[in-house]
Amino acid sequence: MKILVAFDSKYGNTKTVAETIVDGMEAIGDINVTLINMKKVDFKKLDEYDAIVMGCPTHFGKATRTAMKFIERLGKTSETGKPIATFDTYFKTDFEKAVKKMEKKIREEISGSQLLLPSLSIEVEDMKGPILEKELPKCREFGKRIVSQLKSEF
Predict the structure, then answer these.
(1) What is the pTM of this model?
(2) Sign of CA dihedral 111, 79, 83, 5
(3) What is the pLDDT along the chain (154 residues), one digit of tens a residue?
(4) What's the CATH code of the domain at 62?
(5) What are phi and psi of 62, to 5 degrees?
(6) In a 3-state reduction of DSSP, which class is residue 135?
(7) Which of 56, 52, 59 is nearest to 74 (CA)?
(8) How do 62-63 and 51-59 pair as beta strands?
(9) Range of the domain at 69
């Protein structure tokens, strides 16, 4: 099983979340995970992956422009029906704002998309971070749950 984990990160917090999700995935084993910044994804190779996990920071109550453009491009170049999971980082009152916008965009742009699990929203201490320590175990668990669900479907 091959999984792409793509992230957008301004201060490094969302990258840390992505890395921790990958740690959880690899703890389950028997998978091949590629971790990459969304800006560096080779869209010609997307069909090699069985699932896509994507995340970004919440920026002024929204998903980043990079994440939204990534989803648009996925809709134009990816096969339909690929399982997708989303995550974000947020500060104060922006809980789940970016992931909800990503989920909506996925449904609009990617025909037959299948959202895996409820999205993950991780709190940071202030706008530049760091991630609250209590949040990191949620990331590992999210990674484990993604792989477990995918294995049960394949």
Answers:
(1) 0.95
(2) negative
(3) 999 999 999 999 999 999 999 999 999 988 999 999 999 999 999 989 999 999 999 988 899 999 999 999 999 886 667 899 999 999 988 888 899 999 999 999 988 888 999 999 999 999 899 999 999 999 999 999 999 999 988 7
(4) 3.40.50.360
(5) -135, 165
(6) helix
(7) 52
(8) antiparallel
(9) 2-153
Nearest-CA neighbor of 58 among 77, 86, 35?
86
Domain count, the chain: 1
The count of residues in the chain is 154
Q: How far is CA 150 from CA 52, 71, 137, 147, in A?
A: 11, 21, 20, 5
- List, in sequence order, every residue forming a beta bridge with 122; answer none if it has no partner: 89
* pLDDT score of 23: 97
The tokens describing 63, both together, are 């998903």
Show the tokens assigned to 131.
């991630």
Provide DSSP, 95-129: TTHHHHHHHHHHHHHSTT-EE-SS-EEEEBSSTT-
**What does the angle CA 84 – CA 82 – CA 2 come to, to the nearest 5 degrees?**
80
What is the spatial distance between Cα 119 and Cα 129, in angstroms, rounded to a whole number? 20
Q: Is the peptide bond before 83 cis (omega within 30 degrees of 0)?
A: no
